[in-house]
Amino acid sequence: xxxxxxxxxxxxxxxxxxxxxxxxxxxxxxxxxxxxxxxxxxxxxxxxxxxxxxxxxxxxxxxxxxxxxxxx
Length: 72
Hints:
single chain, mainly alpha
């Protein structure tokens, strides 16, 4: 697997959305490519940090302001 494809599929790999053949190919590539492994580790850390934030509901006034601006 080439770096370009590995990085393109890294989000799906992280989410567990790839077929086993693709997961295996990416695992093998990450074992051999320090650059892609670092990019994957960074993406995994960012995803974990975002998950820890939880769901945030915006205040209703935000949507009111957006609607008003769109109407202008």
